[in-house]
Write a structure and sequence with these properties.
Rossmann fold, alpha/beta, 11-stranded mixed beta sheet, 14% strand, 373 residues, homodimer
Chain lengths: 373, 373
């Protein structure tokens, strides 16, 4: 793959993965600035980095706080934020002037081809569902996370778009996750696993056993390789590239991983302050430990991915710095330019896994939306 | 609480927690030796340590391998093991001479008052259900784990006895876990939380929302304080003493915690080997890090607890050393002498949460048993 040449800074080079730089000039990414912990200007700074790497960005936020930006980044004044709303679904419906709603409308109207939202998954999901809408034949959107696993990323979905799931939802999640791993992460033939309490096909609750039978039986039409059930302890072991679960279990698993990492690294840090000897050891070990932290860095993965809408959505974490926001925008762009949504549709159609009769309303779906970030 | 005096070794003093030493002379603990990674003799060595701390043990295993043991430990020759069986439920039914079945029968017959099984949860659960049987008014037994959280233990249940759960099961798990935390761990008024994908009462799947309403509404009759939903990230934060979930989610969470710990501590170890400077730092830091490992040591918690039978069962991990087996036996003894099962019954009865019409067969239950350790 061609590098963008000598003009890119080390940060940009780090952010742009092999393959990221092809066809970058086409899609426009609509970015909602509101909701970031460091403020809209930090998101804007991320957009500038992404633009330098070739992205075209439409930035929705308070123009006054953002100021003048270089070519490649268009600012649309949208100071109203629903990022902190206790009920993002109701807020997204009642607040057409909200930055996330305006950004989602830009995608729905075809002015932009993917959405990035710094204001949390609840707002992104609600504004996305109401405006961009579900892709044809998709039952439910899903949130996917690229786990910060050293060496090879593991995509886990759903991590919280739907607390409840049915078999046909999980089957579609397998296709959605595989298409994501293929187009955005460059995994040739993704291995898909099903999260359960044992490796055998007979382990798990009724939902998991039914889904296992379906994924093992019908085949994926070459879209992925189904590797069966995956246990909690194998999540980080690289036994699968995509791991499918319902949104409640996935959300519990994701937050648990973050919690255990925080607790353990905190304990190591405390240990390194517990005596003079330990302090000296800690100081000597620090550079090597920084590399461990770097490998686990969530900003490098761009955030959570909202799959199953007519365009890709990316939800960087609110506490990200400009580096994470830039990566989110570049990943969104890669998803758009590689036609993630179209490829997902084709794979689902070939496997006969599309929803045949499109029913159900966005309102009914919205009732089950997460109420906060 | 009285110490057992000057005769106890440092290991024994470490194992015997405050309160452990009261009324120790009464109950007998039936211990299945087969299935431990280090062999039956290691379990027997644990029994000897426990006996020195006041336990009375009936040891089921290959007498030839175990040899002569001091007073307080009776050896019952039972060389047949079903610990490695692929289908422990079928094996427990078909093999009356198996050590775990003999041990469970001793408890059922009243020759012993609690069961310790080194041969895995599947075998313990099956042999326990068929022989000791469910306690009156209990829908389903549950496996509880005392998480190795620094400072204050957190009890998580169910971690795998039932892959599927109904509301009334989870409600009973709350009482079972609270009674365990109270009698065995000495937590005065346990705080009980419900594992979910958000703190609000409206978060979670239908099962969790229904259970939340029931636990918040009916009250526990003073048996515990219901603190509402607990997120994955809060599992190790001490926001609750007991955390209730279904067996599939609990099993995924438990193994995920073990996996993340293993991955992170491995990464720290690798970092400490990555350069001369890092090696020196690692060597200096090692004693302090050993303490971190010590705090996380699963052997100190005795293993998994099988709750909901007519007597308590404890399932130490197969890879434990004698120290872990001794702790499992002492914990089993504490549960028996403090009448954990009786207290659970009373609390459930007072709250009107006992199963009114006792139905369902052990065979139907056994069909859903985990098939391996």
């Amino acid at each position: 793959m061609a590098s963008r040449g000598a003009s890119s800074s080390p940060v940009e080079r780090e952010l742009v993965r092999p393959g990221d730089t092809e066809n970058l000039s086409e899609p426009v990414i609509a970015v909602d600035c509101n909701g970031a912990d460091l403020g809209p200007a930090e998101v804007a700074a991320g957009a500038v980095i992404a633009a330098k790497a070739g992205a075209r960005v439409m930035l929705f936020g308070p123009a006054q706080e953002i100021g003048e930006l270089p070519t490649g980044v268009e600012v649309v004044d949208a100071p109203v934020s629903i990022a902190k709303s206790a009920d993002p679904a109701a807020a997204a419906r009642a607040t057409p002037e909200a930055s996330i709603v305006k950004a989602a409308r830009a995608v729905a109207d075809g002015r932009a081809q993917a959405l990035v939202c710094a204001g949390g998954t609840g707002a992104a999901l609600a504004a996305g569902l109401f405006n961009i809408k579900r892709a044809h034949g998709i039952y439910r959107p899903a949130l996917a996370i690229s786990l910060p696993v050293p060496k090879r990323p593991v995509t886990l979905l759903d991590v919280g778009a739907n607390a409840e799931a049915r078999r046909e939802h999980l089957v579609q999640f397998a296709f959605m996750g595989a298409a994501f791993a293929k187009t955005v992460l460059g995994v040739e033939r993704p291995r898909v696993g099903l999260l359960s309490n044992g490796e055998e096909a007979t382990r798990g609750n009724a939902l998991i056993m039914e889904t296992h039978v379906e994924l093992a039986g019908t085949g994926s039409g070459g879209a992925f390789e189904f590797v069966g059930n995956v246990e909690g302890g194998d999540l980080l072991e690289g036994v699968a590239d995509v791991i499918v679960t319902d949104g409640m279990t996935g959300n519990i698993a994701l937050k648990l991983m973050e919690g255990v990492s925080r607790t353990l690294l905190g304990a190591v840090r405390d240990a390194a302050m517990s005596s003079t000897r330990a302090k000296l050891g800690g100081a000597l070990l620090r550079p090597a430990l920084r590399e461990v932290r770097g490998e686990l860095d969530p900003e490098g993965h761009g955030g959570a991915y909202l799959l199953g809408l007519r365009s890709l959505g990316v939800v960087p974490h609110g506490r990200f710095t400009r580096r994470g926001f830039a990566q989110a925008i570049l990943r969104a762009q890669r998803g758009a330019s590689e036609d993630l949504v179209g490829r997902t549709q084709i794979a689902l159609e070939q496997a006969g896994a599309l929803r045949s009769r499109v029913g159900g309303s966005s309102s009914a779906l919205a009732a089950s939306l997460p109420q906060a970030r």
